[in-house]
Fold each of these.
Amino acid sequence: MIKSTVKGRRVLVLSTAIAITMTQLQAQTIPTDQTLPLVKYVKPIIGTERMGHTFPGATVPFGAVQLSPETDTIPYSVDGKYVPDVYKYCAGYQYDDATIVGFAHTHFNGTGHSDLGDFLIMPTVGKLQLNPGTAADPASGFRSRFSHTTEQAAANYYKVDLEDYHIKAELTTTTRVGMHKYTFPATDSAHIILDMMYNLYNYPGKDVWTYLRIINDSTVVGYRQTNGWAKNRTEYFAMQFSKPFKSYGYKNYSTTEPYIGFWRRFDMRKNFPLIQGHDIRAYFDFDAKAGESIEIKMALSPVSYQGALDNMQEEARGWDFNQIKNAGQLAWEKELEKVKIETLNDSDKVNFYTAMYHSFINPTIYMDVDGNYKGLDQQIHNANDSHFTNYTTFSLWDTHRALHPLFTLLQPKRAGDMVESMLKHFDQSIIHMLPVWSTYANEGWCMTGYHAVSVIADAIAKNINGFDQQKALQAVITTATNPLYDNIPAYEKYGYIPDSLSGTSVSTTLEYAYDDWCIAQMAKKLGNDSIYEQFSKRAMNYKNVYDPSIGYMRPKDKNGVFRKNFDPLETSGEGFIEGNAWNYTLYVPHDPKGLIQLTGGDKAFIKRLDALFTTYLPDKYFEHTEDITRDGLIGNYVHGNEPSHHIAYLYNWTSEPWKTQSTVRMILKSQYHNGPDGLGGNDDTGQMSAWYIFSALGFYPVAPGSDLYNLGSPLVKSATIQLENGKTFAIKVVGQSEQNVYVSKVELDGKTLSDKTISQSDITSGGNLTFYMSNKHKK
Amino acid sequence: MIKSTVKGRRVLVLSTAIAITMTQLQAQTIPTDQTLPLVKYVKPIIGTERMGHTFPGATVPFGAVQLSPETDTIPYSVDGKYVPDVYKYCAGYQYDDATIVGFAHTHFNGTGHSDLGDFLIMPTVGKLQLNPGTAADPASGFRSRFSHTTEQAAANYYKVDLEDYHIKAELTTTTRVGMHKYTFPATDSAHIILDMMYNLYNYPGKDVWTYLRIINDSTVVGYRQTNGWAKNRTEYFAMQFSKPFKSYGYKNYSTTEPYIGFWRRFDMRKNFPLIQGHDIRAYFDFDAKAGESIEIKMALSPVSYQGALDNMQEEARGWDFNQIKNAGQLAWEKELEKVKIETLNDSDKVNFYTAMYHSFINPTIYMDVDGNYKGLDQQIHNANDSHFTNYTTFSLWDTHRALHPLFTLLQPKRAGDMVESMLKHFDQSIIHMLPVWSTYANEGWCMTGYHAVSVIADAIAKNINGFDQQKALQAVITTATNPLYDNIPAYEKYGYIPDSLSGTSVSTTLEYAYDDWCIAQMAKKLGNDSIYEQFSKRAMNYKNVYDPSIGYMRPKDKNGVFRKNFDPLETSGEGFIEGNAWNYTLYVPHDPKGLIQLTGGDKAFIKRLDALFTTYLPDKYFEHTEDITRDGLIGNYVHGNEPSHHIAYLYNWTSEPWKTQSTVRMILKSQYHNGPDGLGGNDDTGQMSAWYIFSALGFYPVAPGSDLYNLGSPLVKSATIQLENGKTFAIKVVGQSEQNVYVSKVELDGKTLSDKTISQSDITSGGNLTFYMSNKHKK
């Protein structure tokens, strides 16, 4: 733990928060350029085109501030209100767009639903315009055209020229502070617009309340409350300019605020230091000499604007943009150094380290430097009491598969804190549920299952510390037996969810069965036999929705009759969420052996898998399912969405395990590229990237909740994993080449592995793993 | 101070808060009926008809909860939205109405603008209706008809039968908790409606956000944020039922909340324990046997729902309605005992003790039992650090005249706390201003002047403790020289506010001049000569707006030319706020002698005063000025509104002081009655009532900021003032009768007074004041 002083008070900054404090900055040798050995391979632009939904802007690892440009985001309607685009602009940026409306401080990385986009800042020159204008006619508002030729997106640094204003914009961050540097032409009418109406996932009425308090000629504090995907979210801020503004003002776009105070006593419209209302755009005016830079620091807090001021004071006291940038890049370098790889070419390194980068963006730190955070119960709590760092943004349907297992390996301290964050969420939940899709002190109930139990069981299987294991067991049991949640009583009664009760009865049954297996594993390790037995039995419920007459999982009604008129290729409306029966029939990660038996044995299973990767899926089967696109398809296998992520590894349970090896290598090569369109689907807060990292290293967690990884075919030539416990785990790949995708032998510390697995402790106790590669598979 | 334990924590309950704790309850002998000797004279119904704007419901002295019925309040528009009635329903109740829509927990007493009305509760029986319905057709909604024959309104107790449902409703309170008792007929469909959309001063968009959390089968917590007269106000609550509800639900009337969570995972519409949105009405269902009572406790907090729970735990642990009621009535009795009077008849006692009651309602306590409160800066502060009780609702344009001076006499500890509350407001004000019209952590800038300085100067003149005097001096100077506020720079430059800059240039100039005199007095006492001189000079600015050619104060432009086409009878648009030149010309409370000289000397002044009280003012001169009505007029003198309240006492500076005596007695008799229409104008949070108390006792603070009271003609036969310092001050009136309105002699401790004044210290040092009455005036 790092103890430091904020405004005369002793505060505790937990080491896991990786707060970049000035003290730390000064104690380290900060490189002065952007050529750090591994950071240079990070290309945040990857995934920003079409489906990746990543953002190119600046952030430190797991930063609370993720500061990034917003492009055409929002078609602007005639009455001056934004129109939402829920899906396309999840990260605020689309590479093919031509304009930037400004730079906002909060983003999801790679999600399939949008929110956030807090506190849009846009510098302009000339006549003040408070409307963003339209992409078709950028001059109609404050937005500006830009070009990728002047754009630079690196870890913790983003730069672009705003062509309409001849302004160079640069961004960097600390954990809780965004720093802007705008270099102006000579002008007596420079403006900084603070658009508090800007939102990702915007619509009339989303802005619940906005409050700005101008505390001196260069400092503004306040907050905004929004009713979005996070239904009841308040983000606080403190904003500081490097130079006093000469005047300021705002416009309130709301039409439902009859009482505006008495303007005969004050003119509150200009230079009045308290601004509040439903829909506010503020502006600050400056003079600028040619080439003069105006810098802005924007600190965030989940708790109060005083908290934001304290965060700024602690993390970013001065005005040294490069120092902040370099400190953040050094923090990234340290994270990337946890896996040092050699590859056949630099392109693979770019994919790998960008995947590392994208894996370490969400969940984000959600607490002030003094440990205060807002809980799901809308009350203020302090994390220091429980000695953890509070995280938010858990996209668990996606991330329980590989991202959280990756954290158990590369971020064990954070992994423990994330479990503790989930247990606090459970404590604060009015219905006593672990998170499903939670963000910023809100639960959105997005997607299905209760996959927090997978994350927790996996952490326990892998001896992650930092939370109370028995309490965790109670929390997963309570969650999995919640009578209010998504047909659990029916699931308990019938052993599956009847078709008539749910549009996703089959996939939810399958997910519950896997989650139940996780609970069983956890109970076993913690010595609770009756829970182990109860949930082991529930874990077999997947069998109840399998229809042997057609060979697929299939919706079934209360009386046990399968649904008529069923199409196993269709991804929507057939009892599954975001997927078809082809893919979901393979979703039994915890019991591949049982699944093979159920579906006709080894040969039939191999044939099924082969067909999955080769059967062409016509557009009509997925064009209405947003998360599935042609980009992310390989045959009928969907790599661009999560439910299939384990499938390539299932060949390992058959008599043709080499097909896991060739298929994994094929996916690594076809679904990940260095370009803006380099991701075949939503990154989903790092799940797509985590799949890449594991698979490139040669192993993958098919069933989190077990401590075993399944072996595939490594992409790297070698890798060294630096563990938090001080040990290292080295991966050597003998005979690696583009053609040599088959593994003829694997040795752990010189002993040939007879199984297709290694365990977490094999890795964490340090050692050497050697793959011997060949262009031919073993028999 | 009383120390007590809340949930295992030691908390400090300041004695001034008069929190009715269970500990106190148990330690006292609680009378079991409502016949306490003085409480029985309190008739909260006085002022509830037409213009008084008082409420008849239950409250303890200065209670944070003021729980009262809401009558026809709201014409209901076709689209399901309320239409605001800003003025008529300031207190939520009008005596002439025929229906009750429910019972709400916060009210202003006697104001001229509405807000509050938090958390309307309405019990019903039969088919659930979530709309209030219309007064014309009560059956169209949940409202009920009622009759005054079943109504009882006493100090801290209100009872009425809800005829449409055969429910008896009873209300009582502690400082922070409202208690409801509803006695039902036999039914299997009793409902308690919790209407979170109900507001006083309502309009679409006023409800910013509503949050309900059902924490068990009989407890609900939450909050509501509103954008009303207080622009950014959040009130938190904790609500407990004496009996578990059998089911519950809500309706969200908002049309701008696209994301509602996923109903396929939960049905959130019924029996789901988290309810939130813009516009919420919730309901709770019960069975009831004939004559069964369901009780409800509703605790409020300015800080958090946990604060509300703690408040409930501290103040109202059990379910003994009578104990709570009796404890509150005992608290009232103790307040009323501070002035024991004998009168010619009971009617005067009713007026007097009801005036005492109405004077001790606002300002209200605005902090939790643990000292936490929300500041004007929207941050949470703790009052224990500064050892004060935080108060809110300062209607200072009204109350600086007599209500706050009354507090210096009868509530000196509270008076100090109120000044400290104002100084905290100053600290928290972004523009460094003392309160103008502040309420619930908001400043509304209503009305004119900076009259907090009058209250503070008066407190210093009268040796009130509990705040830092030098800091107070800085605060009043900063306030009075604020370059942003209402034309202060022009006032400083010209010595008056030019007509072109303000619609109320003359009255504001006059008010500033008086306030400046207050600052001068305060500076003098605190030894700051230069400030004394500076503000003594400013205090003479009243002379700058007097036009000797017509004999009235009159708007004047920058070049010194008086406005043409000026009508001194007109109350609107002639340079004055809520008053005409006739009344405002007499508004120089700090320098009557100078005013007499300015306006032509003694005889002319007497003639002017005589004319004021006798000149008939036709309707056309005031019918567009809400706060002035025929009820409150005596000739052209307006007792129903504040600017004239000192005028009757001005005869004391002339050669015919007996006219003060007869006029005061005439006003006491004509403007105050025992009936619902017993107040001739808005009580204005107690100012009308405080005028009555002082005048009935025989003296009045013409110029707060001085420690002198001006003598009038007492209404009482005798009075004993029990002072907080333990001393008593006795008033005897020899020869009192309805006819003997003239004072032939006054003795203080046996010595005849040569002057027409007594000082605060004359009173607070204890002693005897004897008036000798006659039916003829002297000379």
Amino acid sequence: MRLSRRDLMKKAGMAAVGTGFAGLSLSMANKAIGAGQEQQNKIPDLPWPYKKLDPEAVAEAAYEGYYKGACSYGVFEAIVAPLRKEIGFPYTMMPSTLLVVGQGGVADVASLCGSLNGAASAIFLVTGGMDKKLRDASYSIIQDVFLWYEQTALPDYRPKSPKYEIIKSVSGSNLCHVSVSKWCKASKFKSFSKERSERCGWLTAAVAKYTAESLNKYADGAFKMAYPLSAAAKACRSCHDKGSKLENTRAVTDCGGCHFTPSMKQEHPKF
Amino acid sequence: MRLSRRDLMKKAGMAAVGTGFAGLSLSMANKAIGAGQEQQNKIPDLPWPYKKLDPEAVAEAAYEGYYKGACSYGVFEAIVAPLRKEIGFPYTMMPSTLLVVGQGGVADVASLCGSLNGAASAIFLVTGGMDKKLRDASYSIIQDVFLWYEQTALPDYRPKSPKYEIIKSVSGSNLCHVSVSKWCKASKFKSFSKERSERCGWLTAAVAKYTAESLNKYADGAFKMAYPLSAAAKACRSCHDKGSKLENTRAVTDCGGCHFTPSMKQEHPKF
């Protein structure tokens, strides 16, 4: 089949046949090619579309991803990769390598656990946005993952082909530093050992799995926070958080993860 | 000017004039339009190209951004927006709204300070990558920003049109919780007051400015870490960090930001 001039112009999305083509640039011609393609020249607002995921497949992918791009990338890409495969654009435009930076509590600083940082980004990508209502809904899911993490004996997922067997520990904190220190104390392994690294691979898988389960519930309209703040933390917040007498701090975490020394407990005013 | 069939086909990137057009789809036609456009169908690997920025303009944009999308978005978008304007693709495809999630130490949890989380992502976007050498180089810049943050009286940048005047404080930590608590103690303002929010706006500007200055130095091949770990933290690490006798934790931070109680100091073994 030989295409006519009219056919060619039609294929190029040019409606006004025979008029106004002087100075038409390649980029302009490209912009004119179909609404679908035009959309792909602009990144859409959050939240991006979500399709329910297989949590166990996500966990296995996260474990693999950990050994490629560390904890934060491991969780994030385990959620994003199947969405990229199923949905395509805009996930094809997500530079997931950016999430590598969450490694070891961001750039190996051992601040916020990378698996949680990656989970937060994945959750926000598919549920969040600039709008306050979107932020609030997304933050509820994220806070639940954070509180589950600090209250649960982890890792609670065993990869199908692990390098070592790994024991569980409770972090009581969302911080890499605390989480690693607690596990080292429980396991007797060193903080830069291969076993500790493997533990963080399992943990990445566990966080990715719980995140996928949470997102699946949210997609079904069935999400509710399963891990509220501990009674002890609520007691602290009653004097220190928003709307309290002192209102001199902010936190959604178990305070005992850092305020743990005997003098802290002895010297603190009775309440 | 009226374009000939040959001109139209040339503009559509179709070299083989008069042959093989049967069944040509719009997406195929689009893919054929120039190498530049073809590249835009795939997101490039990190690091993305960087052009030196005006640190003061970045600071002002970050302050504005804080009141739109909070601390993490404020820093990140203040770096990315001018690059999007100057360079275009791939920055046109970066969903910067994703960075909103860093708000208040991620989803208002008060963990890692959002301005630092946003700075880390911006730095990694333009200097990092999956490769270990890229990670190491990028992490040095990020760690320097983190240590500058915790050792410096901040905010050290005053926006041109502030809502309130703001006093400085030293956080001694990279955590939102600690940074906010220290500032509340110094200023006597409450943790959810408008003044505290304004302080975090100034802080967002200050972090963005220091980040842009660091990236400019890196672009000139003149970056070196300006804020090493404190002597006190180095002493702690000598027994607890990688390669030490205990090797039972990890951290690149001033330990005293959390381990601050008298009993901690009294009960710790002499070294």
